[in-house]
Amino acid sequence: MALRTQISERQRRFGAELRRLREGAGLAVKDAGALVGMGGPQLSHIEAGRTGLDPDRLTTLLNAYGHMDETYVTALQEMGLSNGKGWWSAFKGSVNASALDLAESESTAASLSSYETLLIPGLLQVPRYSEVILSSDEKKMEFRRSRQQVIDGDGAIPFHAVIHEAALHTRFGGPDAMRDQLDHLVEISELDHVTIQILPFRCTDYVSTGTPFMIVHGAHRDLDTALMEHPGGTSYLSDQAEVAAYRAKFDALKALALPALDASLPLRSRVEHDSWGLVQHLRYTL
How confident is the model at residue 268 (pLDDT cuts 50, 70, 90)? Predict the structure, then answer.
């Protein structure tokens, strides 16, 4: 089988998981390879994400590594068979490689947790807002709309966003566009699997992160990934201790943020301050 010249983040993660488990079991790469009838260099290519691994050989390795959790094994088998292709493949050349990796990660996630400071999360942006952020690039805007299917299309997955109030004050596209954006936040929060909370300016506690991040939750907790988007691309963290730290940060942010957007609650039953009330207040100041 020819080695891949372009490796997706999901393929890279599959290899990294195998390497982590092998090293945890104290096996040298040549000894692990011998268990499934391959040389050390071939297994090294698999651990580098340059090629995949069939389910039977994977199961043999995982058994030797002492990791036979059924959910984890099934998820890892799917990753090992991945060719990295999907709807996002049609945008190759129109968006950068990290954007393609992001789309693949989202499309294979069990759920998503997002924290944003100065922007509305991409998965929640309306076209008039995205147009400004993406400099009216039609292909990038189409790509973003396609990404949004992960939370509002067929097979949508749970999505929890904590958005800093600062993002609601930046009027990208002008007052009308921002009004549309705020209305959309309220509307999409009506979906049972979408939760949106606002972290208000008046929050007096501090969570040690000034960087927006998203946690891509895998089918198994050990396959969770934390990622940060920045101008140069996207950084992925898969070390379990690092991911656990971001899960703890997100839990702290949820606790500090206002109660979730919920347009269905009658006014008399609302708490004094909640995300819906803040969004409505800002909407009518536009």
Answer: low
